[in-house]
Amino acid sequence: MRGFAAVLVLVFAGLASTVTADELPGGECLKCHLEIEDTIAELWKDDVHARAGIGCDGCHGGDPTRDVNELAKRSGSGYQGEFTAQEITLSCGGCHGDIEYMKARNPLLPVDQLEKYWTSEHGKLLAKGETRVAQCVSCHDAHGVREVNDAKSPVYAANVPAMCAHCHADAEYMSDFDIATNQYSEYVQSVHGKALLEKNDVRGAPACNDCHGNHGAAAPTVDAISNICGTCHSYNAELFLESSMASAFKDKSLADCVACHGKHLITHVSDEWVGDKPGTTCRKCHDEGDDGSDLALYFTDTITSVRQSFEEIEDLLGEAEAKGMDVTEGEDYSEAARQGLLQARTLIHSFSKPVMEDKVTEIAANQAAALEVGYAQLKAFEDRRRGLAISTLLLLLLTIGVAIKIRTLPPLE
Amino acid sequence: MSTSPENPERPLLAWVRDRYPIAQFAEWAKHKTVPIGPGAFWYYFGGITLFLFFIQVGTGILLMFYYKGSADTAFESVRFISAKVPFGWLIRSVHAWAANLMIFSVFIHMFSVFFMRAYRKPRELTWLSGIVLLALLLGFGFSGYLLPWNELAFFATKVGTDIIGVIPVIGEPIMYVLRGGEEVTGSTLPRFFALHVALFPALLTIFTAAHLFFIQLQGIHEPDAWKAHPEQRKTMPFFPHFFMRELLLWLITLNILAVLAVFFPAELGVEADPFSPAPAGIKPEWYFLSTFEFLKYMPAHVGPMEGEEFGLLIISLGFLLWCLVPWIDRGRGRAMTTIVMVTGMAILIFLTILTYLGFVA
């Protein structure tokens, strides 16, 4: 039985490999390269181009109908085995930048990759003759090119940081480029890095390319920072850009969001960041006692006060609930206040006391309502106990009355 | 309005007496007696159960003023009853606790009848009607548990109806009818509500009337020893002696209910969401815990049967034997009586242990 199963497996495995080799474009080139167990041929099986019907000659030229090496690569067949970095970009860009060609094959795919590439730091250096920069195959691979949403692709969101770090974290490799190499080690500790790499949030968390661009990768300019962060954190960016702080930052050439939150090492925001004490973010620019410092003090005092009120609410509602009282309404108010606190933290980016005062008034109203429910439920519990005491007394009197009546009944025979 | 020469100060009584034979009823009541044997205390639990049933009817009607029996509205309506309706929390808590106490009381009543061997001829039908009443009360508990439409009740009902579905041949159709489909959904709630407030009360009223009628007709069971020693026979008048003592216990029961309702009010929990996964630790009400635990300990397969199927078969056979006890032990042989009593004690201990294990599980 086991032998029969083994034969079946072998037969199907043989059929499968034959079918794959026959179906893939590549003609005699592929057959030959598969026979010599060339890794290029193996990679080709999963390549998007192979699946799109593009053969080896699409990039390398040559004659794929010939099964003799010398004839397939003969002079005049257009065969080119290896490419320089410059040639790679032109070869890939030749098709991917051709609107009509791409429209007929993959109309959803952008066609400006090469155009953008020449605006990137990589492209600019390559144009100057620096070949140690990233070009198409550095990121996408050459013969095993997979779609971006394929988890095995090096440009799949969760793989991008490691892919960029392959060069950018290599201090020796980057030594001639006057650029830091700690971006990756910082990024993995950041909220973005943890969300992407630990929680696998490939749709929400940004990888390197989400801030720096893909084909046009470059360090963002100071002016672009709030737009880049604002792509996701739109309300924070909107508040900041409308605030008085936006122009102040510009005057001092401070990079909007980055000046307070950092770049690659963006950690969870803490209420302690805001304040007038040394070490707080505000004190990087403001001195104790100036308007900015006073506003920071107002923010920190307000948020601390709101947080302390939550402790009181939790204790109160917890006490009432432990006594079996229904505190759902109070919890609803408390939750609304918590949402308000989250919004208040965002409103710090408006750097406006009146805006914050409005929000705090709303939070305070919800917190007061939650407290009211808690106190009302505790009072209701006390009322219930009193009611129980009175009813117990009445029932006791009735019980005594009945007991006396029983004793006064005629004795049993 | 006419007056009676015998009772000139009670015209209403005279008016009734002129039209209805209440004098005969009064005469019957005057001579109705209750035996005072060694287990006389246990006789009171039948009356306590009846008293709790009256409380259930009263509080149930009050709850129906506000309860809305559909999946969209049930949970919120119960929350409204508990939070906003004056004394709504009290009515709901008393209803929930009285249900539990009633089932506890009826179990005590049943086992006391069993151990006093009061099921013997001529009281076979009283025994059977009592078992039907127990089954109906369990049905009340099962159907009422789902009505608040909270998460715990939803999944407990799912587990409970799953168990019904295991019964060969008839299980699946019954489960389908109870659920109103293949799964417990919003369609299940109106069905349970209808059972809880229409069908079960009607059946319970009929069987309670039959049960009481049998008791009045045949009198309360007297200890077997009195047959051999009639000189030991001792009774007390039902009115007022027994009734006053029963009233005393009713007052104490009422006070226990009030204490439970104030210090342990009925919880509501989280609204049921049919699409959410079942929370951990789903358990039925305490009176179904022994069955639940028993089925849990069943192996996956017993011979050609599924473990649960086999477990239900055992429970069904046990229930059938319990119903047939009056015909198994007819009091003709001491050996059979001893076997039945020891078996009954073993069942009681077994159910208690399984219920305890269910609690701590």
Question: Keywords, please?
Answer:
heterodimer; A: 413 residues; mainly alpha; 0% strand; elongated; B: 361 residues; 4 strands
Can you characterise this structure?
The complex is a heterodimer of chains A (413) and B (361). Chain A has helices at residues 2-23, 27-35, 39-44, 48-51, 57-60, 69-72, 85-96, 99-105, 113-117, 121-127, 136-140, 160-168, 171-174, 183-187, 191-198, 208-212, 225-230, 234-242, 244-251, 256-261, 291-322, 328-347, 353-408. Chain A is mainly alpha-helical. Mean pLDDT of chain A is 90; it is low at 1-19. The mean pLDDT of chain B is 92. The radius of gyration of chain B is 23 Å and the shape is globular. Chain B has a domain at 285-361. Chain B has 361 residues and is mainly alpha-helical. At the A-B interface, helix 23 of A face helix 4 and helix 11 of B.
Give the topology, please:
The complex is a heterodimer of chains A (413) and B (361).
Chain A (H helix, E strand, L loop, with lengths): L1 H22 L3 H9 L3 H6 L3 H4 L5 H4 L8 H4 L12 H12 L2 H7 L7 H5 L3 H7 L8 H5 L19 H9 L2 H4 L8 H5 L3 H8 L9 H5 L12 H6 L3 H9 L1 H8 L4 H6 L29 H32 L5 H20 L5 H56 L5
Helix pairs in contact in A: 21-22, 21-23, 22-23
Chain B lengths: L10 H9 L2 H10 L1 E3 L8 H21 L9 H10 L4 H28 L8 H23 L4 H16 L4 H9 L8 H31 L6 H4 L6 E3 H26 L22 H11 L4 E2 L2 E2 H17 L1 H4 L5 H27 L1
Antiparallel strand pairs in B: 1-2, 3-4
Helix pairs in contact in B: 3-5, 3-11, 4-5, 5-6, 5-11, 6-7, 6-9, 7-8, 12-13, 12-15
